[in-house]
Write a structure and sequence with these properties.
- The complex is a heterodimer of chains A (310) and B (274).
- Chain A is α/β, with parallel strands linked by helices.
- Chain A has 2 domains: 4-221, 3-Layer(aba) Sandwich (Rossmann fold); 229-293, Alpha-Beta Plaits.
- Chain A contains 10 helices and 13 strands.
- Chain A has a 6-stranded mixed β-sheet, with helices on both faces. Chain A has a 4-stranded antiparallel β-sheet with strand order 11-12-10-13, covered by helices on one side. Chain A has a 3-stranded antiparallel β-sheet with strand order 2-1-4, covered by helices on one side.
- In chain A, strand 11 (250-256) and strand 12 (261-267) form a beta hairpin.
- In chain A, helix 8 packs across helix 10 (296-306).
- Chain A is globular, with a radius of gyration of 23 Å.
- Chain B is mainly alpha-helical and 274 residues long.
- Chain B has one domain (2-268).
- Chain B has 12 helices and no strands.
- Chain B has helices at residues 8-27, 30-57, 66-87, 93-98, 101-106, 112-117, 126-142, 149-176, 184-198, 207-216, 224-230, 247-268.
- In chain B, helix 3 (66-87) crosses helix 11 and helix 8 (149-176) packs antiparallel against helix 9 (184-198).
- The longest helix of chain B has 28 residues, at 30-57.
- Chain B is globular, with a radius of gyration of 20 Å.
- The two termini of chain B are 34 Å apart.
- Classes of the chains: A alpha/beta (310), B mainly alpha (274).
- Chains A and B meet through helix 1, helix 2, strand 5 and helix 3 of A and helix 1 and helix 5 of B.
Amino acid sequence: MSIIETRDLVRDFKKTRAVDRMTFSVEPGESVGYIGANGAGKSTTIKMLTGILKPTSGHVRTCDLDPMRERIGVARRVGVVFGQRSQLWWDLPLRDSFAILAAIHSLGEKEARSRTDVLVEQLEMGPQLATPVRSLSLGQRMRAEIAAALLHSPDLLILDEPTIGLDVLSKQRLREFLVAERRERGTTLLLTTHDMGDIERLCDRVLVVDHGRLAFDGSLTGLAATVGAQRVLVIDLAQPTPDLDDIPRTRLLGSESDGLRQRLAFDSEATTAAAVLAQVSARHEVRDLTIEEPDIEDVVRRIYAASGRA
Amino acid sequence: MADARVPLSQRLRPYRVLLASRARAQMQYRASFVTDILGTVGVGLAEFAEVWVIFHNVELLGGLDFKAALLVFALSNLAFSLADMFVGHLDQLPVYIRAGQVDAFYVRPLPLLAQLMTSELSMRRIGRLSVAVVALVVALTTGAVAWSPATVVLIVLTVVSGTAIFAALFTAAGGLQFFLVDGSEFTNSFTYGGQYAAQQSQQVFPGPLRIFWTFVVPTAFVAYVPAVAILDLPGDSLAPPWLAWCTPLAALLAWGIAGLCWRLGTRHYQGAGG
């Protein structure tokens, strides 16, 4: 039995088609990254999986249930975290949110206590239990949201932008927890993100959605191969310089301040950062440089380009 | 489902916990809670002042003297403040939608409307509620009430059904606001407008308006119609004393409409964007 199954799933809003004949399935224990540009249809898909939105046509099953007709059954087996919105009670101490959610999910007293204790310990939230939710830092709140979504031990955890706005350390802790949670309980994970690090650390499979359509479905390695390791060398020059649009095996992305700063994209397979730098500094005096690793937007753009829809 | 075998008390437990948590949250800001209560006492007194001013100038209005009008005032305010306390936040639905709260309700294993209803408990309404209770006690003890067991039953029935009628109006308002952008101006006309209409002698309204407040938005049943029976007044063709016993039917009618509005609203819901 698949945890998620969609076939020819379509959702139209007034004039636009947000999700267009989407077909994929997710097996128990998988960890799937769901990526795409803003407005590509990610949230709409999640809303149809959880029974918030009615599909215009097509087939969708979550935990082998029809989310529209058996929303409550789905809610018992799925945990959802909407990164931008809180599931917690902002005006009460954090521990109250866990107690209320335990009651909502009809957990027995013992079960509720042991599950809360485990999550609080793993997510290191003990010191915050008496703090009102509104006073938590973003990182603390996000960990609390995830604990809240996992309190009823769901089979499927859906995370919508879980690491957005978090600092490096908070991201790290969150990812480590999720890896451990999956290892121990075999929880299936579906997450949307703009952070390549989330995908690298957490997902063994990636779905890329473009204009409501599935543009890529495969492993992270497969994705990297499709995308290439397109990196960007940002060069600060000592003097205003004409556009460096003739450096071999690079593509000029743009230049700022009369050419004082120029951005060159290149494929790691075709050339190296050192070679590009050598070619530039042979002609001009380089003051400073940074290298930008490919981000999700870029990956998505290249996937879109590859599927001929850029 | 297996749910049918779970005892009722067990099934209601989540709502008890939710409501208790709302009460606790309000108690955390003691000073602002007290100020809020004083505020709603003020609202109740202001509403009462209107009745008092009118009857300071006239003996009778719409077939009611001051004591009878006080009973109508008390019954309507009691029902309204009870409904407002428990479900008055339903007409704030757009706020819930924008905050993403409605999406959060969808991913919890409880019915949507039940969650929304128990998501807030405006205890500050106790202020207005107490004004209404005092007015009711005064009206019943000083008025010419024809006491009998039936009268007691009728009073209890009236308070329960009246609260249900206003609760239905708030629910209908919530349902309609799934579609109406900033529709609270419109829905206020029958929630707060209904409350205003309920505390008047219905005889002051011209015919079509009376029919509207009796059979369409049945707020005449909240106070005026039962008061006619409780005080054994003659009433008139649109409010004969026996009609008071139809108050629960009016509540059912109101809930029928409310259920319809709610269903239409949730069907129309598209999620909170993002």
